[in-house]
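Hey, I'm writing a tutorial for new members on how sequence and structure tokens pair up, and I'd like a real worked example in the thread rather than a made-up one. If someone can provide the structure for the chain below, I'll link this post from the tutorial.
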Amino acid sequence: MSPDHSAVIAVEVLHDAGGAIVTLGGELEFGTAASLRTALSDLAQQSCDPVVVDLAAVRFIDSTGLSLLVQAKQRFASQGRRFELRRPTHRVVRVIETSGLADLLALDDLEL
């Protein structure tokens, strides 16, 4: 399969003032979720707070990507830590809203 036809995601983690910012780019779906899952799992072992996921460059998200975000939100909350989404694209917002997860993922708190 050529790179033009395969789903890819870029995951970059930056530590900032005690927290962590995870910047994503590309498509967050079944075939690409493992790299984000690994990054979030690593962050769960650290003491950073908050953990912020920047979705500005995410072009597509499927149910696997949504599930991963929900699981991360619950995991960090159970540790007494904040997990926040930042700058989701309108396409990602529509998917989150359509799935009924807007309240859980705190989309109402975002400036869209």
